[in-house]
Amino acid sequence: MKRDKIIYLVITGLFSLMIAGGAVMYFVKYPMVAKTITKLGYPTYIIYPLAIVKILGLIAIWTNLSRTLKEWAYAGFFFELCLAVSAHVAIQDGEFAGAAVALALVTTSYFFNRRLEAAEKEAAA
After folding, report:
1. Biggest distance spanned by C-alpha atoms of the chain
2. pTM score of the predicted model
3. Quick check: helix, strand or coil at residue 103?
């Protein structure tokens, strides 16, 4: 279980750095992000709400306030990253790698989170 906990923390930490870095960039480099978002075919008015939701999602994952909220945060990140990968592939700009890496990280984080929850449940029984 200790190995799983370390893997979970490292993977979730790397994922969090990627997502938080992107969210900060949405605020700091808005013109550049707006250009990319427009190129992907999305409206620019989603930039600030998306950045805020990403930060809230990370808070939901790290704080464990609610198991349901954490599940929804993982689901939201999964779908958002699937859409990001597919949007980059669709316009063939070759910039899907970052989203693909984040997608792999969030999937791995979720897997180890579920494994740790199952181990805790088993230990409590």
Report:
1. 54
2. 0.91
3. helix
The total number of residues written for the chain in this structure: 125
Distance CA 1, CA 118 (A): 10
Radius of gyration of the chain from Cα atoms?
16
DSSP for 12-49, written as a single string: HHHHHHHHHHHHHHHHHTHHHHHHHHHHTT--GGGHHH
Domain boundaries, the chain: 2-124
61-to-11, 37, 67, 107, 113 alpha-carbon distances in Å: 12, 26, 9, 13, 10
Cα separation, 70 vs 62, whole angstroms: 8
Residues 6+ apart with CB under 8 A from 98: 18
Q: What is the pLDDT of residues 64-115, one digit of tens each?
A: 899 999 999 999 999 999 999 999 999 998 889 999 999 999 999 999 999 9
